[in-house]
DNA sequence: TACGTCATGTAAGTCGTTACATGATTGG
DNA sequence: CCAATCATGTAACGACTTACATGACGTA
């Protein structure tokens, strides 16, 4: 799924501007399985327009900058169906967090712990967003896709929280050992 | 995490060739969070060699093509630690499957069902691989990363299986309805 | 004999990101 | 008044993929 297909797909749900498309892809409830920036969306929309797969009308509401609202055409729908008939490419994830985690034994404990805490916060937030989106969503296929994200992130969150607890228990032990060490040193002094 | 860092990281575990690195990244138990092809790995290794972050020795076992076995240097370790101190980039997933699923109501039922079945098979296989890897792994940080993959994929698999069942129940109903319709038509005739 | 695996590497091309340029409006 | 949001767009650059080139060995 390149940015072209993504725009086409999103426009098949409703008319919107390039700005809106980026929001859906990067911040909305689609963001757990795709991504796109302005620098790729705007050229894609121009191209799609040239090919007659989308059209736009210029909207000028006062008090707001003018915007181009894009609509998918018949030809665009046909192109989308065509894309949907090809074999989907395999899904892929790039997790820098997991890469970093491979070296947790070579970092100070606090550094990896910080990464974990941030990750947990990040996923909690995303999960809240997805759960909210799920409630306010009538469209069954979207419910499925959002539900997938909820299931996935819930599992990951549980896993991370359990691991953080384990980490803290180990730390507590070491911490106590350190305290004892400090006491011993004091007694010696 | 670019290919450069990936190579450096993998070589910090053990010496190996570019060919081996690609296997670990694209087929091994690292493949659920990264990806790299020959076309990026070989140039990265050349670059790292030029910068003195890795070295290699040419190995020629008879009956096999010669291979370059790379090792990370002191300088390479230092570079890796430096990388690990930067903020990790956010994780991102690209799921063409989920994108397709958004249009499941505009496809023939069987088409989406096929996608589901394939996805389930794919994830089952990956999960088996991860579980096997987890058993044979002594390195704690790797256990964490593999465990993450197991947790994630288990949840996704459960979700997909549940949804497939739901799909088939709906299909059964429609199927029965169709049979009844066929009977009615016959009776009419 | 033909295919799969091991093994390295390059070149062309694709795709997308980052940063820049521009500018109006709203709210703190 | 400054920052954020809304809004569009381009150009340079970077990173990676795909396809190609090469070749030996083992096995079905």
Low-confidence stretches of chain A: none
Number of strands of chain A: 3
Main sheet attributes: strand count, strand direction, barrel closure of chain A: 2 strands, antiparallel
Structural class of chain A: mainly alpha
The largest chain-to-chain contact, stated as pair and per-chain residue counts, equals: A-B, 52 and 52 residues
**Could you give the order of the helices and strands of chain A?**
HHHEEHEHHH
Q: Average pLDDT value of chain A? A: 91
Fraction of residues in H or I helices of chain A: 55-70%
| Tally of separate helices of chain A | 7
Instruction: Give me the oligomer status.
Output: homodimer
What is the CA-CA span between the terminal residues of chain A? 68 Å
Beta content of chain A comes to 5-15%
Question: Over the alpha carbons, how many angstroms does the gyration radius of chain A reach?
Answer: 24 Å
Report on this structure:
- In chain A, 66% of the residues lie in helices and 8% in strands.
- Chain A is mainly α and 189 residues long.
- The mean pLDDT of chain A is 91.
- Chain A is elongated, with a radius of gyration of 24 Å.
- Chain A is built from 7 helices and 3 strands; from the N terminus they run αααββαβααα.
- The first copy, chain A, has helices spanning 3-11, 18-26, 38-50, 74-84, 96-101, 109-135, 140-188; strands spanning 54-59, 67-72, 92-94.
- A two-stranded antiparallel ribbon of chain A has the order 1-2.
- In chain A, a hairpin with a 7-residue loop joins strand 1 (54-59) and strand 2 (67-72).
- The termini of chain A are far apart.
- In chain A, helix 1 (3-11) crosses helix 3 (38-50), helix 2 (18-26) crosses helix 3 and helix 6 runs antiparallel to helix 7.
- Chains A and B meet through helix 1, helix 4, strand 3, helix 5 and helix 6 of A and helix 1, helix 4, strand 3, helix 5 and helix 6 of B.
- Chain B binds a DNA duplex (28 and 28 nucleotides) through helix 3.
């Amino acid at each position: 799924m390149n940015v072209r297909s993504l725009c086409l797909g999103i426009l098949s749900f409703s008319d919107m501007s390039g700005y809106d498309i980026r929001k859906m892809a990067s911040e909305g409830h689609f963001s757990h399985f795709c991504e796109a920036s302005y620098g790729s969306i705007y050229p894609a929309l121009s191209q799609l327009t040239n090919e007659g797969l989308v059209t736009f009308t210029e909207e000028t509401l006062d008090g707001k900058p003018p915007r181009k609202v894009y609509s998918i055409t018949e030809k665009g729908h046909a192109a989308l169906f065509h894309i949907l008939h090809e074999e989907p490419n395999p899904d892929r994830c790039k997790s820098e967090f997991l890469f970093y985690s491979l070296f947790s034994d070579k970092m100070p404990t606090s550094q990896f712990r910080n990464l974990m805490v941030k990750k947990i916060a990040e996923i909690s937030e995303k999960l809240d967003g997805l759960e909210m989106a799920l409630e306010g969503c009538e469209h069954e296929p979207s419910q499925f896709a959002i539900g997938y994200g909820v299931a996935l992130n819930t599992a990951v969150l549980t896993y991370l929280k359990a691991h953080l607890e384990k980490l803290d228990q180990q730390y507590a032990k070491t911490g106590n050992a350190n305290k004892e060490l400090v006491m011993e040193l004091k007694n010696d002094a």
